[in-house]
Design brief:
By secondary structure, this protein is α/β, with parallel strands linked by helices. The protein has helices at residues 2-6, 11-27, 48-57, 64-72, 74-80, 86-89, 94-111, 135-143, and strands at residues 32-35, 42-44, 125-129, 148-153, 171-175. It has a 3-stranded parallel sheet with strand order 3-4-5, with helices on one face. Strands 1-2 form a two-stranded antiparallel ribbon. The protein is globular, with a radius of gyration of 18 Å.
């Protein structure tokens, strides 16, 4: 229903989708645990990110990039699981999304000359074009909290994680269509 509403679909369709969502919530009640204090969306009791983390810790899943995140950056994973960032912890293809985003983040760190013992990447301004729900931006901002990150996508801001409410002040969002005539 949110997607239909944000893409200016017919009010009848939006209303029917809201009814279906409500019916589904009634059926699946035990799967949810409260609502987001910012947008009101229902929060999953066991977010997909948490389920995936458990699979890596039990060594059911094998991917070096994702494994390094779960075993070496627990503070990042904990922050990603915060209720304000629910848009990130519920991605459908979480393993694939994490792999792709972590590859970009690690490539950035390598190109920027980052080493854990070296200086921080405070002076950088990272721009995440076509960010979708902005998982890559979140990962780079959480790993390097003092740098500035700008995310750009055509999705409404209401579909983005609530970074400010989660205490991540270094991330800003611009709703722009990079293929639109007014982009540049």
């Amino acid at each position: 229903a949110d997607f239909a509403e944000s893409h200016a679909r017919k009010p009848e369709l939006i209303g029917r989708l809201r009814q279906l969502e409500a019916a589904e919530l009634q059926e699946q009640g035990p799967k949810f645990h409260g609502q987001c204090q910012v947008c009101g969306k229902h929060l999953w009791r066991r977010p997909r990110l948490l389920v995936l983390a458990e699979r890596y810790l039990r060594e059911v899943e094998k991917n070096a990039l994702v494994d390094r995140l779960f075993k070496g950056h627990q503070e990042v994973v904990e922050k990603l699981l915060s209720p304000e960032l629910h848009a990130l912890s519920e991605k459908k293809n979480m393993n694939k999304e994490l792999s792709e985003s972590l590859a970009v983040v690690e490539a950035f760190e390598t190109l920027a000359g980052f080493t854990p013992a070296g200086p921080a990447l405070d002076a950088w301004h990272v721009v995440d074009l076509c960010c979708g729900k902005s998982l890559t931006a979140a990962l780079v901002a959480l790993r390097h909290p003092k740098l500035t990150v700008t995310t750009v996508d055509r999705l409404p801001e209401t579909e983005q994680p609530h970074y400010a409410q989660a205490g991540l002040q270094g991330i800003s969002y611009l709703q722009l269509d990079v293929l639109g005539a007014d982009f540049l």
